[in-house]
Amino acid sequence: MSSPVLLCDTKGMTNERWLECRAHGPKGDIEYTVGSSDVAAIFGVSPWTTPLELWMIKKGRMKPAVKANALQLEMGHLLEPIAAHFYALKSGNRVYDDTYMYQHADHPYALADFDRRFERATDGEPGILECKSTTYRHASDWDDGAFPLYYELQLRFYLSVADVKIGAFSAVWGNNPDSDIAMPEITRDMAKEDMIFEKLDEWIWSLRHDKPPSMSGIPTKLAMDSLARIYQTSNPALPTVELPKKCEPSLRKILALQKDIDACQREVKRYEEEVKAHTVRIAELMKEHEHAVLETTTDKLLIDFVSKTTRRTDSGALKKKYPLIYEEVLNTSVSRKLKVSAQPK
Predict the structure, then answer these.
(1) What's the CA gap between 157 and 116, in Å, rounded?
(2) Scanning 166, 307, 323, 330, which has the fewest C-beta atoms within 10 Å of its C-beta?
(3) How many domains does the chain have?
(4) Is the dihedral of CA 37, 42, 53, 172 positive or negative?
(5) Does residue 89 sit within a domain?
């Protein structure tokens, strides 16, 4: 390995210019790039982005989705100096800023700029510090020296670009530095690094040869949300698609499951009607009372029969009486649901 190529200083750089440098280098001469936040998506383990969505963005066929958690991201950015401060205080290591963007010496597509660098107090060994923040709900992800896989891939990518041997996280989730911070460290592992860059090399090849990745292995909700962002609304003007034979097992399974769902819904409706039938006599006895009780030899049956008032806007009346206001407050949502039907030949 050899030292990385120093590309530019990002200090004072606008976010727009930083994105330009991040996408194609400061001179605009790198066809495709990979940054640390891309690595987990390329491996299919990102909680936020699928490989296909990232691929479409890199190809310029779609724009990155607007982040729904913009304030959370801003909070994370503001907490970086705090995470770095307490890492330095608790570890004794010297932490310092590095505002440069670097290019991997052997993989020119790999670009990185780091949260912080550090020098280990015991021997002066240089390292990369990743500052993270999380919620109490996800604090257990950092128990006993553990860390999420998608962050590990990010930090190992950094170690390779920087050509250093050690890295550390400083993850905070509360206001008590004695208990609400995790500082796990990792050591460079060349076998894992080779595996990472073999995958990234394949990814760059797929971009250059226009071979998009599939959604295989991606969690269902993430995959469907991503496909909705990529392809958006359906187009009635497009012709019917002829699917390949390999799709038949999935389609047959969907067809069978649709029938099972219909049968379950009919059964639920039948049960609900039976409940209503038994309710009539009880409601007649309770009259205006909200609660009742029935003592038995084995237990006590508690009955609640409470009125609830629900107020809904009469959209028909609103549209008729105030059409302009109706259009202003109309909330439009788009969804697509797959339905399979079998037609005998």
Answers:
(1) 15
(2) 307
(3) 2
(4) negative
(5) yes
Is 254 found in the same domain as 116? no
Q: In angstroms, rounded to a whole number, what is the distance separating the alpha carbons of residues 106 and 190?
A: 14
Q: Would the pLDDT of 1 be above 70? A: no
What is the spatial distance between Cα 196 and Cα 160, in angstroms, rounded to a whole number?
10
β-pair partners for 332: none
21-51 pLDDT per residue, tens: 999 999 999 999 999 999 999 999 999 999 9
Q: Is residue 192 part of a domain?
A: yes
Q: 150 and 279, same structural domain? A: no
In a domain, 113, yes or no: yes
Cα 97 to Cα 165: distance, rounded to the nearest angstrom:
18
Degrees, nearest 5: CA angle 253-256-260: 130
Place of tokens 């991040």: 22
Determine the straight-line distance between the first and last CA of the chain, rounded to whole angstroms: 64
Let me know: does 183 contact 8? Beta carbons within 8 Å: no
**How high is the pLDDT of residue 285?**
94
Place of tokens 């797929």: 206
Which residues neighbour 66 within 8 Å (Cβ) at sequence distance 6 or greater?
none
- Comparing 306 with 328, the larger pLDDT belongs to 306
pLDDT higher than 70, residue 185: yes
pLDDT digit string, tens, across residues 14-23: 999 999 999 9
- Note whether residue 213 is domain-resident: no
Strand runs labelled E in 134-277: 166-172, 181-182, 185-187
Range of the domain at 257: 246-285
- Please state, in angstroms and rounded to a whole number, the distance separating the CA atoms of residues 60 and 53: 11
